[in-house]
Every structure is written in C-alpha cells, then in structure tokens.
Predict the structure.
Amino acid sequence: MYCRKCGTFIPGTGELCEKCSVEENLYPAQTTDTIQDRYAHSIDMSRAGRGVALIGLVAPIVSLIMTLIIFGALIAYAAGHYYYFRPGFGTVLLLILLFGFLGVEILSIIFAAKGIGAFRRACRMDASKKPVASLVMSIIGLNVDVVAIIYSLVAIGGIIALFSVY
C-alpha cells in the first residue's frame, strides 16, 4: 500500500502511515509494469526462425534455377533434333527430377511458414526485438515459391507434351 498524502510505501495491510500519521488515506500498490511485462520486453527474439526462413528463401531459388536449366536444355535439344528426337530414359529421368524439384518447392513453403510463425510468436510474446529478417525472408521465399511452382508445372506439362508429340 502507498500513502495518498506522502507516497510512502507501507508494507503489509497497515492502515496508518508512519511518516505522516494519516489514516484511511491509503491506496493499493500499483505498478505500471508487471513482472511478466518486464520479462517480455527484455526478450530478444531477433534470431528466431532465421534458419528455416533462409531455407524457405534459398530452396525455391535453387529449384527455380535448376528447373529453368533442365527444361530449357530439353526444349533446346528437342528443337535442335526436331526430326529424329525420341523421348527416352533421359527424358523420363528429367521428368522425375522436375517432380523432385516440385517437392522441394512445397517443402520450402513449409519452412517459410515456420519463419512467419517465429515472427508471430515474438509478437504474441511482445518481445522487445522481433525477427523481422525471418519475416522478410519468408515473404520473399513464398513469392519465389509461387513462381517456381508455376514454372515447374509448366515444365512438367511441356515434357508431357513432348511425349505426346513424338
């Protein structure tokens, strides 16, 4: 309790201020910050989720580059050997590889979502330092992922079209 007149802290439930001897002029001790608030404001979560967000950013970029190389090389080879191109084991292997890269892109969506989850967790905890880098990397990774998935599906469709033409 605190005295309303002089502001002196009075331990326990005493009703008489020993400093100024005023009765019933007391009010309960109130603090602006609770222990939980002070703890939450001291939490540094700036590095949380950085690893998964980085994977969520790098994996779709690598997958997109590999898909571009594989599909571009296959189309160039098919166009260069137009009259005697026959899809064989190599083409099937490239198709399987493209499906594998599509799986990597789907996994990178999960990693990017975990990076965003780390930022949301820091916001719920009201941490003093939030993992903004994880949030930015995750958002960029998700955007690259959308492009990579669309291109992978186009590449897979293109290879299937090559099978149907020849």
The chain has four helices and two strands.
